[in-house]
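Hmm, what's this shape?
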Amino acid sequence: MPEPVNPSQDGETEPVRLPESDLESIEASVRKLLDQSAEQVRQLDTLASAPPPSDSPFGAVGMPGFAGLPPQPAPPEPRPILELEGEEYEDELDSLSDWVDDFLVRVYGAEVTTAAPWCEQWQEHADIVAWLHALWLAYQQHKDPEAGLSGLFVWHRDFLTHAMATVRAAGGPLSACMTDPDRPAHRLLASPPSSSRTTAETEESEESEENSEPGQGAG
């Protein structure tokens, strides 16, 4: 126990005097706290210097993952829709159609005229599918919170305006389709012929295959 504090004759308080046993206990507690603090500093230095695990969901922000959690699969890389085939293509086209019909055309689809044609069977136009799919991918990217507050403005300025002007151009890929909302129409325009070089290579290949076939021997 500390010794009682008695005021001196001149009114000043004398310092508290602790027994040596109490001083030793306090010193031990202080040393323990200092050791704990030093250990925490070492742990923080280790975490800061070690690279995050490759399967860490926090690797992008430089934070280590939680031990025991299963690795998170990386999201699939977006691919141009015309590179897809079979069921994968049909599923992607269904999702694209939902976005185009329920959002894009409803919000941004101007009236159908000769200056802005459209086609109710736009899914049959490969070039239109490619344009709208690219526009949809850009929309998903720019509406993400990571794109910031100006993300959708950038999408409107750099993607929507240009894509819609191309898709619905008066002389564009839909110019032979519906130009009046009361007269649905659909026609695929013929593509340009193959170049002379490609045509020549194709003919040479066909001739080579014909010459390689076993002919009928003379009797």
Summary: The mean pLDDT is 81.
